Structure formats: structure tokens, C-alpha cells
Give the backbone structure.
Amino acid sequence: MIRHLRHTEIDKAAWDARLLRCANRLWYAQSWVLDLACPGWEALIDEESGAMMPLTCRRKWGIDYLYQPLGLQQLGVLSVELNGALCERFFAAIHERFRYIDIALNEAMSAVPADRGLTPSNNQVLAATADIDAIRAGYSTGHRRNLKEAGIGLAPSVLDAAGFEALFRGTTGARFGASAVKGLGEFMAVVEVGMKRGQCSIAALADGHEVVAAACFATWEGRSILLKSANTEAGYRAKSMFRITDDWLARHAGSGDLLDFAGSNTSSVARFNAGFGAVTRPYFRLRRNRLPLLVRWLKN
């Protein structure tokens, strides 16, 4: 039987212990990450199967709804053993409570039929199982060419979470507007605490004293997620992300660690990831709008 737990009813230690038993466990679903990214999150628990699902929820206009916090690419049902029937039971449970849903599921939930109206999205990952020479041999011709000049004149730099936030707001935020930084404060709180916990790190390159490019990584259970990156115009010209990514692969080569690019449906980003040899792993976005007609129109 699936139980719904309000935030105050969740035993965080038990939640994290259960998460570690899940075959499709994800860094995003740790209780401390959820606490910072979505204060007040709720949960569904199935004691019989050991399955669990975080509910990243908010309340607006007197309506409770589910949303995907910035920086948390995938959540959904996590379990020791996942199947379509189990996922359907969880879907039924969330529909009982929430009339508006816009969340990302995880890639292991591919057993859910696509005809449920789910929207496919793409992630890209690369396993660092080989040595660095073999990994680099798998780069595209263009990537190998770009790496010959990537980061010339730049040096590694130390950057804290506040510094990355300022860089991101001044680059991506300036280019794409308010939607790109909505929830950024909560996300950077996750990164800051993650750095203290030894789970997050920031790789940065600087031209003298000026940081021109940086990327946030979250590493947990053999998986490193490239959470966010930021580039100034100088960083783009210097092809900084080519060097930052190649440096990560050089450090982790032979470890078997998985580099999760937190991939994109944007074709240019997907090509960048694929150029390093990353493969695509699809996941679904679940959107449901059963709000009253007037409210539905306002929400859209």
C-alpha cells in the first residue's frame, strides 16, 4: 500500500537508508538535497516493494501542485526493482492529491508506456571505464581539434558557491532572462552545503584574476552530475568547457565513474556532450493539468 507522507512525517534517516537500497538511486533524491531545493517536500512510500517517490510541491492560489526544482533534473519513483505496474500505482496516488503536475521522472522509468502522454527528454552519460587515451580516442574529430586550443592562457581557479552564482547570473541569466535563474538561490544553497559534505565541487578557469568559466559537479555513488555551467564571452572564445570536461575525464579515467551531463534537448548542447562519446539515455516529463478551466488558463 502506498502511503502519502507530509513533510513533518518523513523520517529523513530512514528515507536516505531506503534510497541507498534503490537500484536507480539518484543524488537528487537525498533528503538534504530536497530540503534545500524544495523546503516542505512530501513523499510517497510503498512499504511492500520498498519504492519511494519525493513530491516536490508548492502551494499557490490555494492549490497544491508538483514542480521540478531548478538543478534537479530527474526524480520520480525509486525502487529496488522497478516495473510499469508499480509506476502506474504511484501515478494514481499523486493524481489523488495534485491537480497540476509538471515533474521530471528518472531514466529507469522507461517501463512506463509513452502513450500515457509523457513527454520524452534526453540525458547524456559517459562511463569513465577506459584509460584517458582510450577515452580521448572516442572524442569526435571536432572535439579533438578544439581541445588543442581549449583553455590556452587560462589557469585553474578556486570558486565558491556565491562566486558561481554571480557568474551564472551575469552570463546565462543575462542571456536568457528571469526563467534561467528562477530558483537559483535554492539551487546554490544545495551546492554550498554539498561542498561542505564533500559531494559537490566547482571547477573554474581564470584569465589572471578573472574567472571566465566554471562548472558545478555533484558526485555520489559513482556518478558525477554536471549540474550547471557558466561561461563569459572570453570563456566561450577559449573553449573552456572542452577543457573542464576533458580534465574531469582525465581525473576519473579507469574508475568506472559515470559522468552525467544532465543532458539537454537543445541540439547544440547534445552535440557537445556526444562529441566526448556520451550516449543518450531518455527520460520522461510528466505534465497533468486538471485545474478548473479559468485557473488552468491562468496557469498556462
The CA atoms of residues 291 and 297 lie 9 Å apart. Residues 2-121+283-299 form a domain with the Aminopeptidase fold (CATH 3.40.630.30).
